[in-house]
Amino acid sequence: MKNVFADVVVDLQYGDCGKGKVVHHLASSGDYSLVMRFNGGSNAGHTIYHRGKKFVTHLVPAGVFHGIKSVVGGGCVINAEKFLREIDQLEEAGIEASKLVKVCYNAHVTTDRHMEEESSELKIGTTRTGNGPTYRDKHARSGVRAEEIASLNRFLIDPYLALKYEGGTGVALMEGAQGFGLDIDWGDYPYVSSSNCTVAAAVNAGVPPQNIRRVIGVAKPYVTYVGARDFAGNHPALQQLQLVGEEYGATTGRPRQCNWLSVPQLIKGANINGVNTLIFNKTDVMQNVGAYMLFPDWKTENVKEFDNMSDFQEYVEFYLRNACPLLEEIIWSSSPHEI
Ligand code: IMP
Ligand code: MG
């Protein structure tokens, strides 16, 4: 029996913090023999720049771009039609997706009925990709699994074997979707997605908790959210962040509501996930807009303002390092296309 090791990438806010970019970058290191998505479905939109070309993937993990086996985990939900279309699009772009992508037999399937049911959903402001109804049926034990769908047959894999418990070497890179604020248990219920978006879901995908080498948390120096809740702050610089940061949903094209970074929320997400490395993406966006504010505590009427990016960063780092015992490294990075 082999030991299975993994690194896990999770989003600490409301999705859209650049997990796709981080996974794409990590997968190029040659460290990993497998990339596995562990939650969500085609509600996700990962924007990836590969060799100068922009890709938006919804289901296929970012390992494919580097020729690594990429698995849709058992905790995911999959719309077969959309999945097959994504495989074709990647193939057309010269990525060997047919060969590299696998689907765990126990992933649940989003059917036309699930899509239909969500087609006019307004209460939560979902992505209308049938995510909630699919997870509901899974838990009601009336769902359909990937193993029952003929068109998925050639992609099927057993996660136990995929993770190489029975031979082989290598480390799995576990790719999360959505984020801590959208987690069904930890997020701002009911304005959440229907899966667990924390490292717990990666464990449930088949990784022993002791063998997680590193948890990589991804965030932005400001916060965005897409959905029905009133979320946006009214400072004009927040509209600038939306424009400069091109903050539009990768799946639905909806504008992402912007607000300032919540320090306590970030600390909570980092601690619940046991984050070792924290990556802030889109630092360049905040710098281009030139407004440096955050919420130092849970009260949204308390906004703290800084004169420049380095004062902002120093404050954030100080509080994070004091409050997050497992945090070892903080990286300030830029927009996806700038890596
Ligand atoms: P659902 O996941 O489609 O059910 O949507 C529930 C909530 O999560 C809505 O507010 C969506 O906008 C949000 N959401 C779901 N997936 C993503 C994502 O990948 N990025 C950002 N928001 C998401
Ligand atoms: Mg996204």
In short:
This protein is of the alpha/beta class and 339 residues long. The protein has helices at residues 19-27, 80-92, 97-100, 112-118, 131-139, 159-162, 199-204, 236-244, 263-273, 283-289, 309-323, and strands at residues 5-11, 32-37, 46-50, 53-57, 69-72, 77-78, 101-104, 108-109, 156-157, 171-175, 212-219, 222-225, 257-262, 277-280, 292-295, 304-306, 329-332. Helix 4 (112-118) packs across helix 5 (131-139).
What key attributes describe this structure?
nine-stranded parallel β-sheet, binds inosinic acid, alpha/beta, four-stranded mixed β-sheet, 11 helices, 339 residues, single chain, globular, 17 strands, binds magnesium ion
**How far from one another are the termini?**
38 Å
Compute the number of helices. Answer: 11
Small molecules in complex: inosinic acid, magnesium ion
**Share of β-strand residues:** 15-25%
Shape: globular
How many β-strand stretches?
17
Percent helix, as a range, is 25-40%
Assembly type of the shown chains?
single chain
Kindly report the spatial arrangement of strands forming the biggest sheet. Answer: 9-7-5-2-10-1-11-14-17
For the biggest sheet, the summary is:
9 strands, parallel
Give the overall pLDDT as a whole number.
94
Rg calculated over all Cα atoms? 19 Å
Structural class: alpha/beta
